[in-house]
Automatic annotation (TrEMBL):
Coiled coil: none annotated. PANTHER family: DEHYDROGENASES, SHORT CHAIN, OXIDOREDUCTASE UCPA. This is 3alpha(Or 20beta)-hydroxysteroid dehydrogenase. Residues 8-172 form the Ketoreductase domain. PROSITE patterns: ADH_SHORT (PS00061). Keywords: Oxidoreductase. Belongs to the short-chain dehydrogenases/reductases (SDR) family. NCBIfam families: PRK07231.1 (NF005559). GO terms for molecular function: oxidoreductase activity. Pfam families: adh_short_C2 (PF13561).
Amino acid sequence: MAAELSGKVVIVTGGARGLGAAMAEAVVAGGGKVLITDVLEKEGADTAAALGESARFLRHDVTNEADWQAAFDLAVAEFGRVDGLVNNAGVATGELLENESVEHFRQVIEINLVGVFIGLRTAIPVLRAHGGGSIVNISSAAGLTGLALTAGYGASKWGVRGLTKIGAVELAESRIRVNSVHPGMTYTPMTAGLGIQPGEGGYPGTPMGRVGVPEEIASAVTFLLSDAAAYMTGAELAVDGGWTAGPTVRALTGR
């Protein structure tokens, strides 16, 4: 069941496909309106068109301050206000720390962490002007534990987790809530190349034995956007099938 978001206007970055598209769809299903932003222009425009009059699309580089301002300006112009922001846009890495180039590390930090910072800073005056709102930062299970092969990605997602706490503390008086969601392995276009498959038994290293699907992450996000989460700020919500809870019995015993 979609969270109740009637009358709310939400910006979802990285919303062209995968997790972001599921989040945008969930906002509309809950009665809200959504501005989808992404660098993937055709896919983003197609996703917005499929959602009808409750959705718009804008090409948006999250490392660019002017693009961020344009996104908020468009959302206000089209829908009259902004009540929520989902900082979802990001890129992943898959290298050992010693093999990660400095250039690529910086690029990942710029998109995954600096982009979230710019989004937070741009959102503050707009949300404050409309009496507050909710910001949901998409971190990762890799932002809750040390995960090999994620030097840039893991560092950026730990940074998102910390930035979320700072935002929550600083903005509570303005009635702006800031929380983070930490997805585990989820079946999306970004992870399909890893050879994972959805369904029971497809990911035995996780206590639930499977990977997530985008709609399961989107449900957590829309809950945090909704008034049902009115007393939640600074929280970190793991949606990871129990992966960060600890090793499975199979991993410990081999059976």
